[in-house]
Design a protein that fits this description.
The protein is α+β, with helices and mostly antiparallel strands. The chain contains 14 helices and 19 strands. It is globular.
Length: about 500
């Protein structure tokens, strides 16, 4: 063998070895671990964003929030109340089983009927689900329900016969889970991901509660994407050689939840005083570096059902103090405001204090706080709510409507709020096939809910991410962190 030939062979061997070397994982920094690995026992945005790599639904939203097929390959409407879904050929679970109509029926019924499922609110208008044959499923709705395709996107498909609580996920997504604890989740490409259009590598989610530390980890090269950063990270990353900021207006509304567990909040004058005590532009300037918009309702502009007439009020401390005095709280009152890491409750506490509402903030891990919220144990809460399908009905059906276990309304109504007028409007909106009328009904429902002020909107937020410059990443309105859409350049 000549020296040139030997060198060529060596070069080929090096190239082959490089190709066979496992790709380094894409590492994403997040603020909390998933609250559950069971896709039907939670309706929490970060958990759904992570589990979307493991599970898939019949339909999905693309980057422009358009509905497209996923586990289904398509659908037809024999009549206005009937939907027939054809399953994607070759769709398989991670254990190799082919996905059949029995799995889809089981999954949808589990999400509707499981006593621990908060996803039932997405399926409130579903009357029946049945298998037509091994590859087709029929869904019948109680009334014409134009939003069904979007409402199916958060309801992931699991194997028929899955246990009452899933702790070892088996989905149809591009990744399977190999490790999960309170500090990290490691995922590897599933064998069934071979039909994906591009190759994918491992994916790791690293938990860091402090957004400043997530930013530091990004700058140090310890993560490739840092999610849910504070707004001041945009300026920091603008001067960075290694990283960049990606941000977009999201559907997240930060709000104060005023539960009747706290005696003062049972009085509507106190709730209005809270509403008028807030200086939302100042909050955005101090807490969000000006990124965001003051909110006067539980929806951001652009969402279907947003009510343009519900603007955030200007601050009126004199009126707020007069309302407190009329309600018997001339000297103010003391209350604890609970929140997860990353929420700037301290800014709101100072503003409320100027009206006489003395607030002590209490930060808890999101896993603990979410569970107590689900049990209705939190009286005063500062949090956020999103509309993953791009509709105000997401919040109105699940968080606002009175709890109805049989139909699924109010499945995430942690405060046990109830207004029968709002309920009737929400249900009427769900039954309307006229987009114009449906929008009007959602807007009217939002006006009724905002008049009650058990939910006090604060701000519509931007989603801020930090990204290494050699990584391609595009933020999504639904907040999903999809590893198969992330590329190294």
């Amino acid at each position: 063998m000549s020296r040139a030939t030997a060198a060529a062979v060596a070069a080929c061997l090096v190239a082959v070895a490089a190709c066979e070397r496992p790709a380094p994982p894409v590492r994403i920094g997040i603020h909390s671990a998933p609250v559950d690995l069971d896709p039907h026992l939670q309706n929490e945005s970060l958990t759904s964003a992570v589990l979307a790599n493991v599970y898939e639904a019949l339909t999905e939203l693309d980057e422009e929030t358009r509905v497209r097929p996923k586990v289904a390959s398509g659908w037809t409407n024999p009549d206005e109340r009937t939907w027939v879904f054809t399953l994607r050929q070759g769709a398989r679970f991670h254990d190799g089983r082919a996905v059949t109509s029995a799995d889809v029926v089981f999954s949808l019924e589990r999400a509707r009927r499981h006593p621990g499922s908060p996803l039932a609110s997405y399926l409130v208008e579903v009357e029946s689900v049945r298998a037509l044959d091994e590859g087709r499923v029929e869904i019948r709705t109680r009334r014409p329900f134009a939003a069904l395709l979007a409402k199916l996107t958060p309801v992931y498909i699991v194997p028929a016969g899955s246990p009452a609580r899933i702790t070892a996920p088996i989905g149809t997504g591009p990744y399977r889970l190999v490790r999960a604890d309170g500090r990290r989740l490691d995922l590897v490409p599933a064998a069934t991901a071979g039909d994906r259009p591009t190759a994918i590598g491992p994916l790791s989610f690293l938990v860091e509660r402090d957004p400043a530390r997530r930013l530091s980890a990004l700058l140090a090269g310890e993560v490739d994407v840092a999610a849910d950063l504070e707004e001041d990270a945009v300026a920091t990353l603008a001067s960075s050689d290694c990283c960049r900021a990606e941000f977009l207006p999201g559907s997240t509304i930060e709000y104060l939840h005023l539960s009747g567990r706290e005696a003062p909040f049972r009085d509507p004058r106190v709730r209005e005083a809270v509403h008028l005590s807030l200086d939302r532009p100042r909050y955005l300037a101090e807490a969000r570096h000006g990124l965001g918009q003051p909110a006067g309702q539980l929806a951001v502009p652009g969402l279907f059902g947003y009510e343009p007439g519900l603007r955030a009020p200007e601050r009126d401390l004199a009126r707020a103090r007069a309302l407190l005095e009329a309600a018997g709280y001339a000297g103010g009152f003391d209350v604890v405001l609970e929140h997860r890491p990353g929420r700037r409750a301290d800014v709101l506490a100072r503003q409320l204090g100027e009206a006489g509402i003395r607030v002590v903030t209490r930060e808890s891990t999101w896993t603990d706080l979410y569970r107590r919220l689900r049990r209705g144990e939190v009286g005063f809460y500062f949090g956020g709510v999103i509309s993953p399908t791009g509709e105000a009905s997401d919040v109105l059906d699940g968080y606002v409507h009175s709890r109805e276990e049989l139909r699924g309304y109010g499945a995430s109504n942690h405060s046990r709020y109830s207004n029968r007028t709002a309920d009737a409007l929400i249900e009427a909106a769900g039954s309307s096939f006229s987009l114009v009328r449906r929008r009007e009904l959602l807007q009217e429902a939002m006006r009724v809910v905002m008049a009650d002020l058990h939910f006090v909107p604060v701000a519509g937020l931007y989603q801020v991410y930090g990204v290494r410059r050699d990584v391609e990443f595009r933020p999504r309105v639904d907040l999903k962190l999809l590893g198969d859409r992330i590329r190294r350049r």
